[in-house]
Amino acid sequence: MSDDRRLDVLRAIVEDYVATQEPVGSRSLLERHQLGVSPATIRGDMAILEDEGYIIAPHTSAGRIPTDKGYRMFVDRLAKVKPLSGAERRAIETFLGGAVDVEDVVQRSVKVLAQLTRQVAIVQYPSLTRSSVRHIEVVPLESARVLLVVITSSGRVEQRIVELTETPDEKLVLDLRSRIVGATVGERLPEASLKLADMIETFAPEHRPVVTSIVTTLTQTFSNERSDERIAIGGTANLARFGADFDRSIKPVLEALEEQVVLLKLLGEATTGMSVSIGRETGYEGLATTSVVATPYGSDEQALATLGTVGPTRIDYPSTMASVAAVSRYVGGILTERWTPDP
Amino acid sequence: MSDDRRLDVLRAIVEDYVATQEPVGSRSLLERHQLGVSPATIRGDMAILEDEGYIIAPHTSAGRIPTDKGYRMFVDRLAKVKPLSGAERRAIETFLGGAVDVEDVVQRSVKVLAQLTRQVAIVQYPSLTRSSVRHIEVVPLESARVLLVVITSSGRVEQRIVELTETPDEKLVLDLRSRIVGATVGERLPEASLKLADMIETFAPEHRPVVTSIVTTLTQTFSNERSDERIAIGGTANLARFGADFDRSIKPVLEALEEQVVLLKLLGEATTGMSVSIGRETGYEGLATTSVVATPYGSDEQALATLGTVGPTRIDYPSTMASVAAVSRYVGGILTERWTPDP
DNA sequence: GACTGGCACCTGAGAACGACGAGTGCCGAA
DNA sequence: TTCGGCACTCGTCGTTCTCAGGTGCCAGTC
Question: Who has greater pLDDT, B171 or B3?
């Protein structure tokens, strides 16, 4: 008995099950794959694969379906790369190319990814903390209010209105503005916070309250966790493909999708590269029958955030991974090229 | 036969059906309502109500369920106002009160409305075109780029980056900025656009290209339809209550929810006040078994946008309408009080 | 020793069926 | 007009039966 053939059988089972959504038996397997042996031999291989936990029979007299472990093996060792078609590439490129701002890029990414994979797509907004300061503006408003605008290297704009105890002197504001800009532009957000903290002491004591107030707000904005938590979701109608049993297989997924914390953790696992979490590997009971494919996007040096898909475990992993990778690449390209200072 | 009693019967049928989700027969109706007559009499009334199209029997020997027309009658003439409990009011108030910016207000509104009604909640972001200019900032960036920031009376901040053909003179930018601010602050967005157009000619011809470029971008931002289209959705897990048949009753709803155009049209019908669309009244086949309850929010004088719920036709209309109205009131209050210039 | 064909066995899906019960429509009487 | 009574209708539920697809095992073959 050859180990190789047993793995071929596993691959064939995964492929067939993904295609048909039905347990695959030894006979029907041979109808779709030329393995050069008889059904009985396949049955032997299947029995061993079942012993090893790669596949399982839903009941005595049905075919086999892959287990989480089986999919894992398939993804890690058996899947062949399935490149996107030229049409798909062009579709991504032209659709994302039409975006007018960061918000738009994210919305379009979600849409295109959901359509490509026919799954639920999730895209995290570009992280604030992982980007650097492009510009900061300090604008006095009416009363004793000041508007702060922070523009980051990823093109995001955050604004805050600060209520001061007194209307600040115009010269002070101008001075403060230029010093803030000088200290922070080009810095990563955490570093910028440090620089700002140091800066406070360089001001005359009578100006400290105003300066402190403004700097504090900026620092909060830099480390604003809520901003990092924003996520766009699309393609929820594709949940239809998850299964017919709403309460058991779809409702928990919808609940998980509404729970940003869960999504962020799932996406967070993909900081270093393409990540595939299969079934219970996701760590959430509600997602026990779903897989999450995620990958970071951004420039080569710096990831901005993460995007991916949520689908039933029985998905076409090679295609899904190819789509996620492609969208990630284009989004990263657009965000870094388009909204980056020209040379 | 009294007309009054027949309407009482219709009301009882709607209330019972909403409560039990099951067709209601003449006998079980009397178990829950004291109508002072016998089942046979009720049957007579039911027969007439069925002739008139207010109720229908799913099959010969089942009870009756209300038709869209029956719900319509119920909402228009039979429903008694069902005020929110004090606890519910306080929950809305405290939860929405914790919001830190407009984005946050909208997110929290969706959440609280979905929880209160146990339906899908949709909240349109405050409209740009319906609000006025609070402040505009013009910030030169590196190269020949300029950042424009627009703050509206509803607290929204829009930003655009303009690519100019040449780096503008610093004095010109300052002049332009103060003139833009002078011309637009306090104006409604459409009027602000007009004022800006007039302003172009007051600049020296050599400055026209820069000015025109910037003003054009601002005008586009003012009339940006895409901004008006943003909608937050929540409580999709409540779709579970819509019915067990996913493909027929839930998938089309999910699809409609992803189609912003549909949602906007539904919300748009509520410009003048509380609007209830029942079943096919929504005008979308996919929403044939759902009802949309929507109402505008904003100040007394000026609606900012619309919010509401999407649920199966068999919902508790009085409670739903009360919840939608309450959330609308609080959201409107917060947005107009909190982010409006102090006196 | 690995593979194959044959065979007995298992089991879920689906059709057929009957009993049951909730509900109706109608009629004659109060 | 209302009411009680009665015959009738149909969908639901549980039971039974058949069927098809699938397995495991074993003896035989290359």
Answer: B171
Q: Among A48-62, A113-127, B28-42, B253-267, name the one with the lowest average pLDDT.
A: B28-42
In this prediction, residue B272 carries a pLDDT of 85
**Extended strands (E) in chain A:** 55-56, 65-66, 120-124, 133-140, 145-152, 157-163, 231-234, 275-278, 290-298, 303-312
Q: B177 to chain A: nearest residue by CA? A: A139
The chain A residues in contact with chain B (CB within 8 A) are: 100-101, 104, 134-135, 137, 139, 141-143, 147, 149, 151, 157, 159, 226, 234-237, 239-240, 244, 246-247, 250-251, 254-255, 257-258, 339, 341-342
d(CA B126, CA B128): 6
Tell me the CA–C1' distance in angstroms for B50 and C21: 23
**In the 8-state DSSP scheme, what is residue B188?**
B
* Cβ atoms of residues A158 and A224 within 8 Å: yes
Cα(A96)–Cα(A84) distance, integer angstroms: 16
Q: Which residues of B29-89 form beta strands (DSSP E)?
A: 55-56, 65-66
- Residues of B156-166 as b/e, b for ≥16 C-beta within 10 angstroms? bbbbbbbeeee
Amino acid at B306: T
d(CA B132, CA B151): 9
Whole-number pLDDT of residue A134: 82
Which burial class, exposed, middle or buried, applies to B232 when counting CB atoms under 10 A from its CB (0-12, 13-18, 19+)? middle
Which of A250, A253, A261, A263 is the best mutation test for B, with the most CBs of B within 10 A? A250
- Check B341 against A143: CB less than 8 A apart: yes
What is the pLDDT confidence band of residue A342, given thresholds at 50, 70 and 90?
very low
Averaged confidence pLDDT in chain A? 86
Does the pLDDT value for residue B248 go beyond 80?
no
A199, A182 Cβ separation under 8 angstroms: no
pLDDT tens, position by position, A247-300: 667 888 888 998 888 888 899 888 888 999 999 999 998 899 899 999 999 887
Measured between its terminal Cα atoms, the distance across chain B in Å is 63
Phi, psi angle pair for A33, to nearest 5°: -135, 140
CA distance B239 to chain A (A): 8
Token pair belonging to B143: 């190269």
Residue A303 bridge partners (DSSP): A298
Q: What are phi and psi of A203, to 5 degrees?
A: -95, 155
In the predicted model, what is the mean pLDDT of chain B?
Answer: 86
Confidence of residue B111 (pLDDT cuts 50, 70, 90): very high
What 3-state class would DSSP assign to A99?
A: coil
Q: What is the number of other CB atoms lying within 10 angstroms of the CB of residue B82?
A: 14
What dihedral angle (degrees, nearest 10) is formed by the CA atoms of B125, B127, B133, B136?
Answer: 50
* Cross-strand bridge partners of residue A187: none
Q: What is the pLDDT of residues B176-189, one digit of tens each?
A: 888 998 888 888 88
